[in-house]
């Protein structure tokens, strides 16, 4: 058997807690208040939590790598973004995104997603 990281799928993202300096209260809010050409509102849910976290990222074409900068919890996650779809009833689906360079799908001009813990079966 190899180490646990040898068995993880490459499309999973390992989140490590940021330093306490990066988690200073208001540091994200100060950055969000700086004037930018455009911003994107992000609402994200960790696993089974019912209340989302809300942040703002600069720009209108946000990538997965940019979103990952908001994550403060340790763990390996999969990312499912709510997006418009005519394929199924309801007009929306949760689309998994794994490529850090991919522009994220929006719903109503905002990013809405669920982070799900990745379970390693090996």
Keywords for this entry:
3 helices
Description:
There is one protein chain. With 122 residues, the protein is an alpha+beta fold. 13% of the residues lie in helices and 33% in strands. It contains three helices and six strands. It has helices at residues 4-7, 27-33, 64-68, and strands at 13-15, 39-46, 53-58, 75-84, 92-97, 111-117. Strands 1, 2, 3, 4, 5 and 6 form a six-stranded mixed β-sheet that branches. It is globular, with a radius of gyration of 16 Å. The termini are close together. 10% of the residues are buried.
Helix and strand topology:
Elements: H1 4-7, E1 13-15, H2 27-33, E2 39-46, E3 53-58, H3 64-68, E4 75-84, E5 92-97, E6 111-117
Beta-strand proportion: 25-35%
- Helix residue percentage: 10-25%
Q: What distance separates the N and C termini? A: 9 Å
Shape: globular
Low-confidence stretches: 1-13, 16-25
Structure classification: alpha+beta
Tally of DSSP β-strands: 6
The major pleated sheet works out as: 6 strands, mixed
Q: Give, in order, the helices and strands.
A: HEHEEHEEE
Q: State the helix count.
A: 3
Mean pLDDT: 77
Radius of gyration: 16 Å
């Amino acid at each position: 058997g190899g180490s646990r990281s040898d068995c993880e799928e490459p499309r999973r993202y390992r989140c490590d807690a940021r330093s306490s300096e990066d988690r200073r209260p208001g540091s994200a809010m100060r950055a969000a208040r700086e004037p930018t050409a455009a911003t994107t509102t992000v609402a994200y849910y960790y696993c089974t939590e019912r209340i989302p976290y809300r942040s703002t990222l600069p720009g209108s074409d946000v990538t997965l790598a940019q979103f990952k900068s908001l994550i403060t919890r340790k763990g390996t996650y999969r990312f499912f973004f709510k997006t418009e779809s005519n394929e199924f009833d309801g007009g929306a689906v949760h689309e998994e995104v794994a490529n850090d360079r991919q522009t994220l799908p929006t719903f109503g001009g905002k990013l809405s997603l669920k982070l799900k813990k990745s379970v390693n079966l090996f």
